[in-house]
Amino acid sequence: MLSTGQMNAIQQSAPLLKAEGTKLVTVFYQNMIRQHPELLNQFNKTNLMNGSQPEALAATLYQAALHIDRLEELLPAVKQIAHKHVSVMVKKEQYPIVGHHLIEAMKEVFGLNEQDDTLLAWKAAYDIIANIFIAIEAEMMDENVKQKGGWADVKPFVIKKKKQESPALISFYLVPEDESELPMYEAGQYITVQADMPGEAYVCSRQYSLSDQYHPSYYRITVKRDGHVSTFLHDEMEEGDVLQVSMSQGTFCLQEDTKEPAYFISAGSGVTPMIGLVKTAAHRNQPFTMIHADRLEDVTAFEKEFESVLASSSHGRIILCNEQFEQSGKGGLVEKAACRIDRPILQSVMREGKGQFYLCGSPTFTQEMIHILKEMGIPEQNIHFESFGGQSMKEMEVV
């Protein structure tokens, strides 16, 4: 347990983390990967290179500093991160490596010496936080293996079907090579896909949202041609090829035991988890509205699938948005709006401001939607989101 003095020292470091956190974490990753390149097996290299991974960790450290005296308030975020760790197979023995390099980066970037009170406090705090993650993740891994059909880490899956959904989107239907039945998973979750790519010394990993509700024989992911692994899947992987795949993980799922309206708000690749969520809401007879914006060539990729969902639901509404549509209105059951997603369109579809709101898209899009919803009086606990690319410092401040 941390002393009052240690908690005060950590909280006093929050402004420094807010200002220099991304620099700190960038140095941390550079030094750690240089000495332990095998950890590249577990990182999304695109997110490391574009800065979204450092930004996400910087935001987490900042929030830990602010809440060090009440860590229980961070439990939802801890569980969300733990799901990601389990998905990429983070091991107990890797936590000391991370802790060592994080402290060394603090010394280098913040100019702290070995006996500085702030550094000593962060050492103690890291050990406590790491043990929390280790315990939660061990329990989650154990639950995975115990499930019927469950497995540890990854196992081989065959690409059963490769379907072009739009110029930029391809769906992959992944079937266990051993033809076993998949354990139950929830719409909105994701899997890790590992690929052995030519010229790469280490396995390349990427997490993809499942783009359908539960099916016992396959996972479906829908991949936008964007990034190292995604481009490889588009160009090189064909039906019959094998990928290593983890069990599903994630907390971006429908809230249980609620008949409140559900609002699904997405942009770009953020549509992928929404497909399964919309189908699940329709199956539950839960009122829902989905609003999705994308490039003109991609926004209608799943229109037929959405039409089928609406045909079986009397309480659903789906609106596809793009400013280049010639006009707004209904072509079939799915509506089209010649606009972007902004406050006026959200206000026009909301039922008295009540409901659960699910957001998915880029960090910039998600941050903008959170701002709008909070300005409209939506309670923080009713806003659920998944950011593709990691949770940014600005998002952490908003929610």
From TrEMBL:
- Per the record, the domain of life is Bacteria
Reaction(s) catalysed (UniProt annotation): 2 nitric oxide + NADH + 2 O2 = 2 nitrate + NAD(+) + H(+); 2 nitric oxide + NADPH + 2 O2 = 2 nitrate + NADP(+) + H(+)
Q: Does the keyword Methyltransferase apply?
A: no
Q: Which PANTHER family match?
A: FLAVOHEMOPROTEIN (PTHR43396)
- Reported cofactor(s): heme b
Keywords of the record = Dioxygenase, Heme, Iron, Metal-binding, NAD, NADP, Oxidoreductase, Oxygen transport, Transport
Q: What lineage, starting at the top, does this entry show? A: Bacteria, Bacillati, Bacillota, Bacilli, Bacillales
Transport listed as a keyword: yes
* A GO molecular-function descriptor: metal ion binding
In terms of CDD domains, this protein maps to: flavohem_like_fad_nad_binding, Yhb1-globin-like
Q: Where's the Globin domain?
A: 1-138
Which residues are in the FAD-binding FR-type domain?
152-255
- Kindly provide the name given to this protein in its UniProt entry: nitric oxide dioxygenase
Question: Any one Gene Ontology biological process term?
Answer: nitric oxide catabolic process
| E.C. number | 1.14.12.17
| Record-stated family | In the C-terminal section; belongs to the flavoprotein pyridine nucleotide cytochrome reductase family. Belongs to the globin family.
Primary enzyme class:
oxidoreductase
Organism, by scientific name, is Bacillus zhangzhouensis
